[in-house]
TrEMBL record:
Residues 5-324 form the FAD dependent oxidoreductase domain. Its main location: cytoplasm. Gene3D superfamilies: D-Amino Acid Oxidase, subunit A, domain 2 (3.30.9.10), NAD(P)-binding Rossmann-like Domain (3.40.50.720). This is D-aspartate oxidase. It comes from Podiceps cristatus (Great crested grebe).
């Protein structure tokens, strides 16, 4: 058969990294990215991009750990290369702190991040409201530069990129053999997934170059994540809230919470407010599906629903999606050789 034509719907971190993995694992494919929005207008642009996994209750822990490990290894190599500053990837050290002892003293990812250890009493003195803490070094993506870097890699691999809103995956069946759905929260409408819901997050991006260490309250609500140029201050987690408008009361609340952990932030300047909708599900939807109408079939691979942790697992999930695309190609080749007999 001719080179299989694959369309990837979505240009957030999941769509772009999935398209890149497909070009790496299936070099004979013709790959196209279709998306109604690109950087800087995706949820992925709003994210802090810290590699600290979120737990998906419906996805086995060993699978989540594998995705995180592959992502960490991939980004470590970039951070250790001449590409690091263009790709916006860097190592950052800091603390995750708890007011009460966490249920699990060791998170499942403790041996993937670097130098994980309990904080000393002297370190905890900085946080008088907190009784326990974990110190470690992890990676951070500065999200818009990383998305642009991925786009650049795709273009040099010959991937076509088009602005296009897809109303129904079936509309692509006459142009493509395989469609990969990486629409994030857009999958709610695109494939009518009622198990997918938004968790609204509001963050502030500020100029505070003296802040070098990350601080994350273990409840996941308040965090300070220094990037290469800006520091991300968070945040909120508002289930089923679809509003993309920043709320001024929330901005003040986030700022006050972060200043109570890091008082020097009172001098932060150039405050920008961003809102994004985390595409949340009990489990990431990473699976094959066959759509068919009137005897005509369209092979689909879904890769969406990464909620609060898309950056932390994107490369591992993208590799798995590319593997599923490989299975679809094998199925297509089997069908075409049987048809010739
Ligand atoms: P998106 O970035 O939303 O991309 C979806 C793409 O699909 C877009 O390009 C969109 O235009 C396109 N699309 C949708 N529907 C259609 C359609 N019908 N036709 C064509 N195109 C379509 N994760 C971490 O790991 N670490 C963090 O520190 C972190 N911080 C976060 C902070 C906040 C405030 C938020 C909101 C999220 C954070 N996340 C973090 C989570 C992370 O942002 C998401 O998991 C990730 O961005 C999801 O990526 P995505 O590509 O699936 O979605």
């Amino acid at each position: 058969m001719a080179a299989p034509k694959v369309a990837v719907v979505g240009a957030g971190v999941i769509g772009l990294s999935t398209a890149l993995c497909i070009t790496e694992t299936c070099p004979d494919c013709s790959v196209t990215v279709l998306s109604d929005q690109f950087s800087p207008n995706t949820t992925s642009d709003v994210a802090a991009g810290m590699l600290i996994p979120h737990t998906y209750p419906g996805t086995p822990i060993h699978v989540q750990k594998q995705w995180f490990k592959e992502t960490f290894t991939y980004l470590s190599a970039i951070s250790n290369s001449t590409e690091a500053s263009e790709a916006g990837i860097h190592l950052v050290s800091g603390w995750q702190i708890f007011k009460n002892m966490p249920k699990e003293e060791l998170p499942f990812w403790w041996d993937i991040v670097l130098g994980f250890r309990p904080m000393s009493a002297a370190e905890l003195q900085k946080f008088p409201q907190h009784r326990f803490g974990q110190a470690f070094m992890t990676l951070k993506c500065d999200c818009p530069p990383y998305l642009l870097w991925l786009e650049k890699r795709l273009k040099s691999a010959g991937v076509q990129i088009y602005i296009r809103k897809v109303s129904d995956l079936w509309e692509l069946h006459s142009e493509y053999n395989i469609v990969v759905n990486c629409a994030g929260i857009g999958a709610h409408q695109l494939v009518g997934d009622k198990k997918l819901f938004p968790i609204r997050g509001q963050v502030l991006k500020v100029h505070a170059p003296w802040v070098k260490n990350f601080i994350r309250d273990g409840d996941g609500l308040t965090y300070i994540y220094p990037g290469i140029h800006r520091v991300t201050l968070g945040g909120t987690r508002e289930k089923e809230n679809w509003s993309l408008s920043p709320d001024p009361g929330t901005t003040k609340d986030i700022f006050d919470r972060c200043c109570s952990l890091e008082p020097s932030l009172q001098a932060a300047q150039d405050i920008e407010v961003k809102v994004g909708l985390r595409p949340s599900r009990q489990c990431v939807r990473l699976q094959r599906e066959v759509l068919s109408q009137g005897g005509v079939k369209l092979l689909v691979v879904h890769n969406y629903g990464h909620g609060a942790g898309g950056f932390s697992v994107h490369r591992g999930a993208a590799k798995e999606a590319a593997h599923l695309v490989g299975e679809c190609i094998a199925a297509l080749q089997g069908t075409s050789s049987r048809a010739k007999l």
